[in-house]
Amino acid sequence: MKASARAALQAASRWRALEFAFWLVPVAAYFLFPRHYLLLNEMAIFALFALSLDLILGYAGIISLGHAAFFGFGAYAAALFAKHIHPDPLLGLAATAAGAALFGLVSSVLILRGTDLTRLMVTLGIALITYEVAAKMAWLTGGTDGLQGVVVGPLLGRFDFDMSGRTAYLYSLATLFVLFLIARRVVHSPFGMGLKAIRDNRLRAAAIGIPVNRRLAAVNTLAATMAGMAGALLSQSTSFASLDVLAFHRSAEALLVLVIGGTGWLYGGPIGAVVFTLLHDRLAALTPQYWQFWVGAILAGLVLIGRERMRLIVRPWRWFKAKKVGE
């Protein structure tokens, strides 16, 4: 039994050809779209943020409306580290990861209590409290004016963060890939299988000996660390941090990204981030005043039609096959 389970995990963890092709796309984008490094950098950061949310939502079943608390914490932590301690971006990223992990671990004490609805309110409350603390501590965070005067040193002592976003994109993409590998290893391990069991039936998982609270606390800590690092990438690549990184719309957009890309699938966050960012960019250029309406309409249509029906529309032969089976 153990041998078969181990074989199943090994089979699931093997890399497929489509996965290699997926990661070749952002590398190719670096050479094909040199004028859009800033947009590509935004996609990479947003993909990491959505990936971190999917770990707790898609794999552990924890619905969060306040994931932006970790993202914003990371953005301010990295900016303050660069301004007051050391400008090296890698040192700042490591320090931010440690701080975000501690924040995630402490918040787990509150998030694990109660039912799903209670957790939903608790996560929202944590985000609102974090936002208000940052706003009130204007002497440290800059308040509504944002944290200014942040100077980030060159990456590896050689590559400056220029206005084109070239270094920033490569930096964010490399960080995303490394953290994706970690997340992939986690979900294709016995720990990840335990998370799925907890998501499907928490009581049954506890009955078979899975330490539910410890595993949920661990995955929440990991997700908080990754979200904090995504925020750090944003502040380091822009040399700025403001209250916007803690705003509710950050958490809402991450949820929308997972609606587009799908939950419980590691590639759902990155794919959804690319689609959402392109929609945002193109629609904002076409209709600056009403782009949110069109994004909402597209998302509402996606939800109403359903992802499976969308696949039938995109692949007509599946529609004919489904129709034939139905007859």
Number of domains: 1
DSSP summary, beta strand count: 0
Tell me the helix content. Answer: over 70%
**Average pLDDT metric:** 83
The number of helical runs is 16
**Helix- and strand-based class?**
mainly alpha
Summarize the biggest pleated sheet: none
β content, as a range? Answer: under 5%
The topology string of helices and strands comes to HHHHHHHHHHHHHHHH
The value of Rg in angstroms is 20 Å
pLDDT under 50 segments (min length 5)? 312-327
Terminal-residue CA separation:
41 Å
What does the overall shape look like?
globular
Summarize the structure.
The protein has one domain. It has 327 residues and is mostly helical.
Protein model, in words:
- The protein is mainly α.
- The protein has one domain.
- Helix content is 76%, strand content 0%.
- It starts with a helix and ends with a helix.
- Mean pLDDT is 83; it is low at 312-327.
State the main characteristics:
16 helices; globular; mainly alpha; disordered C terminus; 0% strand; 327 residues
Give the helix/strand layout.
Layout: H1 2-13, H2 17-32, H3 37-57, H4 68-84, H5 89-111, H6 116-136, H7 138-141, H8 166-187, H9 190-200, H10 202-207, H11 212-238, H12 248-261, H13 268-286, H14 291-305, H15 307-314, H16 316-326
Helix pairs in contact: 3-8, 3-11, 3-12, 3-13, 4-5, 4-6, 4-11, 5-11, 8-11, 9-11, 12-13, 13-14, 15-16
